[in-house]
Structure formats: structure tokens, C-alpha cells
């Protein structure tokens, strides 16, 4: 056994390349699986099979004395399975909605390097499409650019696991003719970005978007007398800080974005919650058809009467039809004090006759009901093993 680091690293690189080759072979099998399921019309996801597979792998590693922890094995394979599920979904969705362009214009908030930009990049990559970037100055402008045809899609944050709902986006959904056609989750990893400073205690001004400031509030409290400069996006903050190039100021943003502006990470892992994920929605002018084999979500906009129990009555429709509700949000109606609009996200496909029945019954309990979109759920919940 050699203890020469260069030699050991060469071995590691070789093994990693072999792993990549095997991952690519497994990735290609996802296409065979989905073609087979197209014939049988089986649902893409088979949680029982996933559980069985993970259990077998953990057992196999133990029998072979591989010295790998069960949690390590499950985490890796959950990720591999997620890729397989999403690959299969994209295959079916592209076939069903054949008119998708090769170059897609996506409108998003902020400049290059904003979280919305990074999420847009992921969306285009997932569909193996070339992204044409349209950066916008406000959420409203994202909606407008899709509406006027400049952009094929708009990518907008809807909720974050630390700071909750993004109310402005919910409010804009109340008045749009666009449809939600997709969703994606993007892990948010905030860090302190600087142009030259080495010492955190010398920073007295932080630039960032209000959401980012809120998500890092506990870390900010640990800093002495720091002044906050609110910016319209974290990428604006990064650009400003790079331009000012002063030792006492820093931006809160992400590492990839910071690289684009020549900033470096002074401290990472500063969000209140370690698992900080933003869920983005994708909006377009036309609704998409979603394959019945895919786990699907539908977002509804509903107004009930002002009578006592009106919302509870409406919700009993879901219970009666065994429909899972994944989100309930309410927002005031502009110009109508104390009146509320409800946003209901359910696990359902509007093409399914059962869902149509649910919508028909829901209508009886509401004074306004609109489907904001029916879209493939692109958040693959990992299975656990006991
Ligand atoms: O075996 C299948 O049915 C697959 O689709 C493959 C696979 C996997 O990647 O292992 C992916 C998704 C299913 O939920 C189960 C397993």
C-alpha cells in the first residue's frame, strides 16, 4: 500500500470515473423502464420496489462486510432513484407536450447568480433544453414577460422551508392568466461573500434581499452592530458589493453567484435552518397535459362565502374523495377588507374524472374557483427503510 498522496488521489479518480460510468448506465436504464411502463400504463413511482431495493442493498453491504453505514447507502441511492424518477417523468412529459422548444426563454427575478436564475438553469437542464436567460427587476415583470410572449416560462419562488410563503407571488397569481406548469425544489445555501476581507468582525454592512436577511436572522444577531442594506435581489447585492470593493461590506448570497461576481466565501452555512429549500413554480401561457402515470399536483384559487364554517365545508370534499391537500394558504383580496382568497394545493390531476367530480362539488361551496395549474410534482419524496 502506497502512502503517496498523488498516487492515492489517482486511484480515487479512477474509482470515481468507474462510479460515473455505472451511474450513467443506470441512468440510461431509466429510459427502458419508462418505455416498458408506457406499455403497461403503470405509475412511474413504485415505493414498495424502492423500499425493497434499499433494504436489499443495505443487507448486501452488510453480508459482504463493505464497512458502509446503512444511512450512507440509503442517502446515495435515494438520490439515484430521484434521478431515475425525474428522468422518466421528463420523458413522458416531453412526449405528451411535444411542442416544447429546444431553446427556452426563461424570465426570473434578479441578475445572473440569483437563486431564481440557478433554479431556471436547473429546470432547463432537466428538460435538456438550452436556456435563454431573461433577468427581471420584479416578480411582476416575470409575469409580464411571459404574458407578452418574450419568455416561454417564468420561474418564481413560492415558499421556503425557513421563511414560509412568498406572499407577493401568491398575490400576483390572483390576477394572472398564466398557468403553473411545473415546480422544482432548490436547496438554498446562503453564505457571507466578500471582495477582500478576511475577518468577519470587521464587516459592518450587509447587503441582501429581505428574504435572505430573514432566513439568516440568527446568524446576523451574532454580529455586532451590523447595518443592513436591503436590495431587490441577492444578485444585485453581490454585484453592488463587488463594485464597491470595500473591506467593511459583505453580501449574503450563494457561492455560485458570488463566483460570477468575483466574490469569495467568508462564511458558509449561515441560514437559520440547515435544510433550507425553496420551492419554485414554473408559469407559462398555456397549461400542460400531465401523464396519469406521474405524481401530479393541482393548485386551486378559491373564495368561499363569508358564512361560518364555509371553508371547512369546502374542505370536506377532499376528505370525502380521499384527496391529499399539500398546502392551504390565504391572502387578502385587494380592495375588499377582511375578505380572503384561498390557495389549495392538492395531489390530483385535473384530467382525472375523479378530480373533475371534486372540482364540481367544490364549486358548490365557493363563490369563485379557478385552477391555477396542474403540473408534475418534481419533488421526489425519498422512501425510508425501517
Ligand atoms: O423499477 C422501477 O419501476 C423503476 O422505475 C426504477 C426505480 C429505480 O430507479 O430503481 C425508480 C422508480 C421507482 O419508484 C422504482 C425504482
TrEMBL record:
Q: Which residues form a coiled coil?
A: 44-71
Chain ranges of the ACT domain = 299-376
Question: Pathway of this protein?
Answer: Amino-acid biosynthesis; L-phenylalanine biosynthesis; phenylpyruvate from prephenate: step 1/1; Metabolic intermediate biosynthesis; prephenate biosynthesis; prephenate from chorismate: step 1/1
Which compartment or compartments is the protein found in? Cytoplasm
InterPro entries (UniProt xref): ACT-like_dom_sf (IPR045865), ACT_dom (IPR002912), Chor_mutase/pphenate_deHydtase (IPR008242), Chorismate_II_sf (IPR036263), CM_dom_sf (IPR036979), CM_II_prokaryot (IPR002701), CM_P_1 (IPR010952), Preph_deHydtase (IPR001086)
Residues where substrate binds? 9, 26, 37, 46, 50, 84, 88
Give the highest taxon in the source lineage: Bacteria
This entry carries the following GO cellular component terms, namely: cytoplasm
| Gene Ontology terms describing biological process | chorismate metabolic process; L-phenylalanine biosynthetic process
Name the CDD domains on file.
ACT_CM-PDT, PBP2_Ct-PDT_like
Q: Give EC number(s), comma-separated.
A: 4.2.1.51, 5.4.99.5
Keywords, A to Z, come to: Amino-acid biosynthesis, Aromatic amino acid biosynthesis, Coiled coil, Cytoplasm, Isomerase, Lyase, Multifunctional enzyme, Phenylalanine biosynthesis
Reaction(s) catalysed by this chain, per the record, are:
chorismate = prephenate; prephenate + H(+) = 3-phenylpyruvate + CO2 + H2O
Q: Give the main location.
A: cytoplasm
Q: Does the keyword Lipid metabolism apply?
A: no
Q: What's an example of a GO molecular-function annotation for this chain?
A: chorismate mutase activity
List residue numbers at the site (Essential for prephenate dehydratase activity): 278
Q: Where is the Chorismate mutase domain?
A: 1-92
Read off the SUPFAM superfamilies from this record: ACT-like (SSF55021), Chorismate mutase II (SSF48600), Periplasmic binding protein-like II (SSF53850)
What is the purpose of this protein? Catalyzes the Claisen rearrangement of chorismate to prephenate and the decarboxylation/dehydration of prephenate to phenylpyruvate.
Protein's name in the database: Bifunctional chorismate mutase/prephenate dehydratase
Q: Which organism is it from?
A: Conservatibacter flavescens
